[in-house]
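Support case: user asked for a sample of complex input and structure output to validate their parser. Sending the pair below.
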Amino acid sequence: MTGAAPVLELRGIHHSYGTGEAAVHALRGIDLTVVRGDYLAIMGPSGSGKSTLMNLLGCLDIATQGQYLLGGVDVSELDDRALARVRNRQIGFVFQSFNLIARMTALANVELPLLYGGVRSSRRRELALEALDMVGLADRVTHRPQALSGGQQQRVAIARALVTSPTIVLADEPTGNLDSQSTDDVLGILDSLSQAGRTIVVITHEDAVGAHAARVVSIRDGLLVGDRRNRPLGAPAETVAVA
Amino acid sequence: MSLLETLRSAFRGITTNKLRSVLTLLGVMIGVAAVILLLAVGNGSAQQINALITQLGTNTLTVRAGGGFGFSGGSGGSAASDTSTKKLTLDVADRLSHAGLGHVKAVVPQVDTSLTVSSTSVSENDVSLIGTTPNYFTVTTAKVGSGSAFTTADVTSAAKVAVIGSTIATKLFPTGSALGQTISVDGSTFTVVGILASQSDNGLSDANSVVVAPISRVQRSYTGFGAISTMTVEATSSADVPAAQGEVEVMLDQLLAYDPTTATGNAPYTITDQSQLLQTAAASAQSFTVLLGAVAAISLLVGGIGVTNVMLVTVTERTREIGIRKALGATRAAILGQFLVEAATLTLLGGVLGVIAALIGAGFTINGTKPVVLGYSVPLALGVSVAIGVFFGVYPAARAAAMRPIQALRSI
């Protein structure tokens, strides 16, 4: 990890829900730097604050305290319009519960971020088909989410996260709702994305998922308690023995 | 996001949940149609009454014999208990018409009675028999439709001729024309010289079921030469009606030797302005329109609440979708635009369908009234319904769009 540029940097991040005595301090001072092309897994038990951290990374929420630099820009300073642009261009978010829009086809779902990015219709279609092909769903583009299996839905969601070529792909428990076969499919896709040089941050509580990552950070009670590198940047995941 | 994309996205939203969209559409449609149609019915009936007023003539006064209760006008046999005042007679009417009153154009005396009228085959009981002079047909609303009126010569000679109403003409002579036929009025034979044009029902009596004959003949054969029942006074114009009334009062007091300042008991006559009654009717038609308008406004309100309800449910249901869209990079404006177009399209479509339904409905006669659509009611109903739909479609969406994506995603 020599000389790699940081994609995101967290400095002294605190986050709490509620106010006064009822306040829940989910994050109590997180410092974290992720470099370009890394494959990071954030692991921790439930209630450790990992989901809160993920929401902050995805600009879905704003930290109550601390600095979050994404590509060198302090995100907490941005207004609604600029934040929307960051979410659109820089971040590809994969949710545990897929979060596809039920009444739209797979293709339309994947096109959605491009629509908000102002890409014109023909180019949108082209890029979306490409992304769906990459996750192996070229033959399912006109299906609506309810006509797809959980694994297929998550692959559509990954295609949607990838289609804008974001700086960073964030995946919040991407295999949490999937069977083992689909889990393997999804992890395989993430591995190949990492190989292709994408920066990926995955949140999980499963060691099997964490084992795919190049770097594993542990979080407990709102604090980082461990930071372990499985393999050097860019090394294929296959070289790592699954625990 | 371009306007076209917004439109496409909104239409997808509308067509996805068809039942909800149809219910919203229906709510707006019924509200709008009810407002336009009910106001049109109210307006139509008011116009009908106005037409009736015009038809009855606003430039006439009616002088009735007797001022109070229990006066049996018409029959000459009734003896006046008050000897100091005279009765309203044909002679009084003649003098009144020749008195040279400035605002009086004509005086039409009239005696009324009710008798059995028959042809050779058919007999009708209680037909109103009116004895009058020829100017009855020019001053009042009774016009001769076919044949001709009787003449002044007929009055002088007390001829047995009659002009009969259209209803009685068809009843007595169902197969052919009544013109030139003879009818029997309580045993006396009259020749039918004219038939009255059909008159619209004024709600007081059947104006088409009458027999009109020279006053001299009616007095001689039936009522006697005593008091007459009414006089119709035609003023020189409708504006001169009050002046004419004053002149007639002064003249009649003099002719009847009646002094309102010293007299006890009832006045020997009463004067009514023909249009007074109908002005009252017009006022009640006006309040009828207001009432209908209120009912319509309530139905629009209920329709609006229905739309509001659907819109609120829609947005609550779709708050998660808003969260997803925001997570993918939608700006607040893009989300608002989508919901605005969706709500506006739905309510506008419903509103336009409502207007069409109302205009079709206005083509039919409703409860005897031909509805007349009020021009302002169309934009009013349409505007109110669209405003309600758009406000309640956009306001909750605006709240959801202002949330952080994670808040919107966590709801539901």
